[in-house]
């Protein structure tokens, strides 16, 4: 099957204009179908402060009340998304900006209230993912740029984790493509020593992962990301790459650094 890159960038790229520009140049040069999923960084918080909307978090997760969902819809689906699309167009990359509501791409459900009411936050049931619109756009040569917003099919936008959106889109599109899911974050990859940025584990398979965990050689905070990567692989994604945006993509889009996660 044809190779497809599903690439997610977060705040460490979004919040830095120079870093974003450098990343987008590399992304635009990839000679293969690709999708970009972006987070919102700290931009929504800054605009919220100007509008008198206080940002509230529980365990690092944003509480998305009525005011905040309007704010993140404007910032993520509008400002951030369209600036990225415009920048890619200037680089000769025919990008099209989307949220999960467009073409019913990503239906979701409002997170149930348990110990914490997160408000208008969306969780994505795997059986509801609708990857066909993204496939049609890719077939026409367009490059989807997806904001971290979904919808509840009842007319309401939901704030949704960008890592999750990248994963479900990668899984959904794996029916038609050989998918490489790429997570860009602030480190060079999965580190054996969290204090040493050069201690990157270049390859993780299930066997290697078991040995690393048994030897307590991985930082606990990276384990959920690796577990999610293997879940995506088990659901059909070819391989997952984790690393720094500066290192992951060359002008061919095929040579990479970082940590590669695959079945064997």
Q: What spatial form do the alpha-carbon principal axes imply?
A: globular
Based on helices, strands and strand pairing, what is the structural class? alpha/beta
Spatial separation of the terminal alpha carbons = 19 Å
Record field, number of beta strands: 14
Q: Strand count, sense and closure of the main sheet?
A: 8 strands, mixed
Average residue pLDDT = 91
- The number of domains is 1
**What fraction of the residues are assigned to beta strands by DSSP?**
15-25%
Short key terms for the protein model shown above:
Carbamate kinase; eight-stranded mixed beta sheet; 14 strands; alpha/beta; 36% helix; 264 residues; globular
What does this structure look like?
- With 264 residues, the chain is an alpha/beta fold.
- The protein has one domain: Carbamate kinase.
- It has helices at residues 11-14, 17-28, 43-51, 66-90, 132-139, 162-173, 206-214, 223-234, 245-248; strands at residues 3-9, 34-38, 57-58, 61-62, 95-98, 109-110, 122-123, 143-146, 149-151, 157-159, 178-185, 203-204, 239-244, 259-261.
- A hairpin with a 2-residue loop joins strand 3 and strand 4.
- Helix 3 (43-51) packs across helix 4 (66-90) and helix 6 (162-173) runs parallel beside helix 8 (223-234).
- 43% of the residues are buried.
